[in-house]
Design goal:
Blueprint lengths: L6 H12 L3 E2 L2 E2 L6 H22 L28 H44 L13 H16 L7 E5 L12 E8 L8 H9 L2 H11 L8 E5 L11 E9 L12 H18 L2 E5 L10 H11 L7 E5 L7 H4 L2 E5 L2
Parallel strand pairs: 3-8, 4-6, 4-7, 7-8
Antiparallel strand pairs: 1-2, 3-9, 5-6
Length: 341
Amino acid sequence: MDPVQSITEINEEHILESHMYIFEGKDYSKETSQGDKKAYDHLLEHQKALLEDLSQGGRVLRNKKNVLLMTANMVPSKKRKLSPEELEVQQKKIQEAAAKKARLREEKRQRAAEIEQQKKIALWEANHYQSCCLESEESSEEEDEEEEKSQLDLEYTDPEQTSIKYIVGDVTHPIVGDEDAIIVHCVDDSGHWGRGGLFTALGNRSDQPKKMYELAGKMKDLTLGGTLLFCIDDKESRNKGTDLLALIVAQHRDHSNNLSGIKLPALEKGLKKIYQEAKKRNASIHLPRIGYSIKGFNWYGTERLIRKYLGSRGIPAYVYYFPRIKASSSSKESIVATQQS
């Protein structure tokens, strides 16, 4: 080699030595051998076969070495736009699948409910238990029309026909004539009788409330919207007429002993059942100011339900305010207010 080389020759040698396609002194960038072409074609065929297998639902190979990345020249084509007819068929299939799923879910729920009901009946038979829960009655066309009419009456009828009478007194000793009286109280579904307030007052009036409620809890007969009805004349009674207690299960107590507020849908179900019973007995309804001690409770929603299912249908409804200061017997028996709808 000539000891003196030009700058051009040195640069060419440097480029040649550092070329990325040079391997063991051979430049592979100038030409592609038949072996390279064959290997490349084999890779493409293998990739194509793999993609076809995957598109037909085949399993992905567990050996990751055999899974090749998609090459740039094999980008999947755009999804074909469906025609209106195809879109309609697709939408129909989606709706049918959703309906089937809902039907299966409902069938599963019904089977579970039937199994639970069978267990409950077996428990009742083993303990000779007879439920005092009011059953829901199917509404007749006449009653449906009556309900629609009562809904309109809340806005357009005579206030005297849908009024709730407010009384200062003790709801456990209803102020009535000779008719039957149904006292209403809301409870939770735990089966544990409470203390204080109306719970204690009812316990003083009769031994039946605590006994019947806790027995219903043991027999798994307490569900939201359920209503227990029984007589409470064991300790004291009137010459004419019967006093009954209706316990509406309107609150839920969870396993952590957390108590929910009064659930208006459950209360509504209970009032519907009480209306049917009051209609049969020609009885009056006597309630405390339900939920007055519960923070944020919607008393006006409750008031509207009482008017809807009792007042507007001709059932006398009385709401009692218990006096904080002991009042005279004459003031206890006076009706202090009547509110119009």
